[in-house]
Write a structure and sequence with these properties.
The protein is α+β, with helices and mostly antiparallel strands and 168 residues long. The chain has one domain: Nuclear Transport Factor 2, Chain: A (Roll), CATH 3.10.450.50. Helix content is 40%, strand content 33%. A six-stranded mixed sheet has the order 2-1-6-5-4-3, with helices on one face. The longest helix has 51 residues. The radius of gyration is 27 Å and the shape is elongated. The model has no long low-confidence stretch (mean pLDDT 82).
Length: 168
């Protein structure tokens, strides 16, 4: 006695195959969309880091502290570490800059960022590292910086800045 395999009119297998193919296609398209979204988001995060630094350079080089500070998140939570001190809050960071560069007789010099690395952490955050150099009247000073950027409703802003100086 031999057993006969179950028979089908063929439509069940065909329908199941099409349904399986459709589900697999949707899943694959979803994965591709997710991957492209991550790629595009990280590309935008990298671009935002470069754009923000360019805005800082431009504002600094025209002596515009308020324009320079526009790149920082206007919040009590934003932080600046430098000169052995921690400063918290947008207004406090602005005051720190005004003490050094805000008087009518102070010169800000020309700012240039060098060796910049922008590392997207996600679609809405980036870590930016590099070197800053300010030149004025043939004198030069500089140091290293690390900033953390975050995208919020008001755009890409610095939420943390850790800047060191080569000379104390």
């Amino acid at each position: 006695m031999t057993a006969n395999p179950p028979t089908s009119n063929g439509r069940g297998f065909y329908f199941g195959g099409c349904l399986g193919f459709a589900i697999l296609s949707i899943v694959l398209l979803g994965v591709i969309y997710w991957m492209m979204g991550g790629f595009i988001g990280k590309t935008m995060a990298r671009s935002a880091g470069w754009d923000l630094l360019k805005a800082q350079e431009d504002a600094w080089n025209r002596g515009d502290l308020n324009g320079f500070m526009a790149t920082y998140r206007m919040s009590d939570d934003v932080t600046f570490f430098g000169g052995g001190a921690a400063t918290k809050g947008w207004a406090e960071i602005l005051e720190r800059y005004q003490i050094s560069y805000g008087s009518p007789n102070s010169r800000m010099g020309q700012l240039k960022f060098e060796n910049v690395q922008v590392e997207p952490l996600s679609y809405d955050s980036s870590l930016v590292r590099g070197r800053w150099v300010v030149r004025d009247n043939g004198q030069s000073k500089g140091g290293l910086f690390t900033i953390l950027l975050r995208k919020r409703s008001d755009g890409w802003k610095i939420i943390h800045d850790h800047t060191s100086s080569d000379t104390p």
